[in-house]
Amino acid sequence: MPVYTCTTAAGTLTPAVKRSLAGEITRVHSEINHVPPGYVNVVFSELPREDVYVGGEPGAPLLITGWARRGHPQRETTRLALAVSAAASRISGVPRDRVLVVIQDSPARSAVEAGHVLPEPGEEASWQGAG
Amino acid sequence: MPVYTCTTAAGTLTPAVKRSLAGEITRVHSEINHVPPGYVNVVFSELPREDVYVGGEPGAPLLITGWARRGHPQRETTRLALAVSAAASRISGVPRDRVLVVIQDSPARSAVEAGHVLPEPGEEASWQGAG
Amino acid sequence: MPVYTCTTAAGTLTPAVKRSLAGEITRVHSEINHVPPGYVNVVFSELPREDVYVGGEPGAPLLITGWARRGHPQRETTRLALAVSAAASRISGVPRDRVLVVIQDSPARSAVEAGHVLPEPGEEASWQGAG
């Protein structure tokens, strides 16, 4: 259900780091938001170095934007953002000063997966898509 | 006004499928959200296969994220997500289990097109940008 | 803290225009949202021309999507979107009819930078990450 997009300047992450980071984001999200791992999408968008700016100058941040269903407790979403941030810095070696994690949301009823409207947080068990 | 981003692993969609899917998303959005077709943007972000993960493993989903103005009835947004999802699977041949559609929103007053602040849903007729 | 993604068809913006636009978005955002320039991220996502559609036909828009912390006054966010739009058209030469700016948000507590949860708008001075 969730989608994480990790945006970097090319060369910031090795293939092995990307795979490891995708796995860890999946694990952390699955645990905190109670979603089966198989529903967690993680993609990497690597841009030419001259297309990434921080403070108006070329930079090399690791920008992770996630989308999840609205309605998870705010405290859990904060915990999720902190956990993803810590994992990203630890696995990638990018200093934490250059790691930004943002979790966005919209109503479960504004999203469809496997042909079915997503369940509200906490109502996953009855979801047809999980059948 | 709206922007749809279709993210896939490279090779998932042919050029003909992309064009056809862009056309159908445009038609469906225009009809349900009452926006002239010429204001509907659809872009495709194709990533290297090794940069797309589902459940922590390389995968080949079709991830469609749309943005629209806040204030459309939720029931209509749900209908929109279902229609885009059905069209995406039908046109692309990607099994519906691998198709995710998410509609995000923000206030019309947080967006500008053609130099003008976007109209609230239902107030399009008086919009200066439509002149 | 904020992230701006500028999406175009390849060839729409020269390297010099991208750099200049990144600088101006940074300046405008910093001034209106009271964020130090060093925290403003701007990235450019250039897609093959055949992957960008407007109204169901290949097109060449300049689509700028920004994310900022929720809680800024709506009037200021509208002013920000107008200023970014004007700067984008002026600097890039893309006619304003083809420039779309969308500002999205989520709670500051749903985002982490430099290992710290982001401060609410107006509470930046006490933020640990700014230390």
TrEMBL record, chains A, B, C:
Q: Which Gene3D superfamilies match?
A: Macrophage Migration Inhibitory Factor
Q: Which UniProt keywords apply?
A: Pyruvate
Transport: present as a keyword of the record?
no
Record domain Tautomerase cis-CaaD-like: where: 1-127
Name of the protein this chain belongs to = Phenylpyruvate tautomerase PptA, 4-oxalocrotonate tautomerase family
Q: Which organism is it from?
A: Lentzea fradiae
